[in-house]
Amino acid sequence: METLGMLIDFTECIGCGECVKACQQFNSLPPNPDPEHLSDRNYTVVLRYEEQYYRKLCMHCQDPTCASVCPVGAFTKTEQGRVLYNADKCMGCRYCMMACPFGVPRYQWSKAIPVIKKCVFCIHEVNGGKETACSWVCPMGATRLGRRHHLLDIAWSRIRRHPDRYVPYVYGENDAGGTSVLLLSGVPFEQLGYRMDLPQGPMPQLTWQVLSKIPSIVLTGGVLLGGLSWIINRRIQIETGDLKENELAGDKEKEVGDE
Ligand code: SF4
Ligand code: SF4
Ligand code: SF4
């Protein structure tokens, strides 16, 4: 199956925030007191740099480092292109948070039994699987879904036709090995906080074996012990039925595969 993608053309975005609201509603996220930062309650944000609006969300990498560093395989890249997280496998080590080149995964620090939260590329129910909530509601077509290679053609065609409007770069085409989310901008990406120093190929060398040998991470190796305690507590809660319904609902979202 050919990978899906999402093209976000920042030059078309009017900053209405409908994508953020739709994401909150569709993913049953609780009210969010801090709409300007990604969090366990906020899978995407719309920000402004001078005259241009722009979005941030999980980039759904082609070769995701969140998956390669995870010691228990809690992240998977699906054939469709989504990168999904399975809370039942997670042991709470947070290597994914350290490894993500885009600083995306968020931890539920306020919960007794926290899990990782991030955008799920929610195509499974919106418009018969043809849209995500954020692309479905976007009034400007600034966020759109399609086959990744087709979206790349569209992006480069726009750059060629309007060189005065765009920086000549499709962010995500090759960055960190390529991502399913592709970005167009009229403002240099580094000014929007997007890293331009990432490898232009996959980062498979970044595995949990490597991470676990980095001194600063070994020093905080308590996360592993914390992880063990976390998983034991979680199992006990599941077995005794103490997990709240919304926590279980959050877990279920990642179970919806791409079949
Ligand atoms: S952006 Fe980060 S969390 Fe999302 S797929 Fe890539 S490595 Fe994983
Ligand atoms: S794809 Fe779905 S989960 Fe991801 S930002 Fe858009 S609405 Fe939110
Ligand atoms: S819904 Fe579309 S136009 Fe509105 S903020 Fe989101 S991407 Fe921009």
Q: Secondary-structure element sequence?
A: EHEEHEEHEEHEHEHHHH
What ligands does this structure carry?
iron/sulfur cluster
Weakly predicted, low-confidence segments:
243-259
CATH fold call:
Alpha-Beta Plaits
Structural class: alpha+beta
The CATH class designation is Alpha Beta
Q: How confident is the prediction overall: mean pLDDT? A: 84
Q: Structurally, how many domains make up the residues?
A: 1
Strand content: 5-15%
* Helix share bin: 25-40%
Number of helices: 9
Q: Label the CATH architecture.
A: 2-Layer Sandwich
Rg, nearest Å: 18 Å
**CA-based shape:** globular
Q: Major sheet, described briefly?
A: 3 strands, mixed
Strand numbers in spatial order across the main sheet: 8-1-9
Oligomeric state of the chains in view: single chain
Measure the end-to-end span: 11 Å
Structure overview:
It contains nine helices and nine strands. The protein has 259 residues and is an alpha+beta fold. It has one domain: Alpha-Beta Plaits, CATH 3.30.70. The strands form four sheets. A three-stranded mixed beta sheet has the order 8-1-9. A two-stranded antiparallel sheet has the order 2-3. It has a two-stranded antiparallel ribbon with strand order 4-5. It is globular, with a radius of gyration of 18 Å. It starts with a strand and ends in a 6-residue tail after the last helix. Mean pLDDT is 84; it is low at 243-259. Bound molecules: iron/sulfur cluster (3 copies). The site of one iron/sulfur cluster has 16 residues, from α1 and β3. One iron/sulfur cluster (SF4) binds next to α1 and α4.
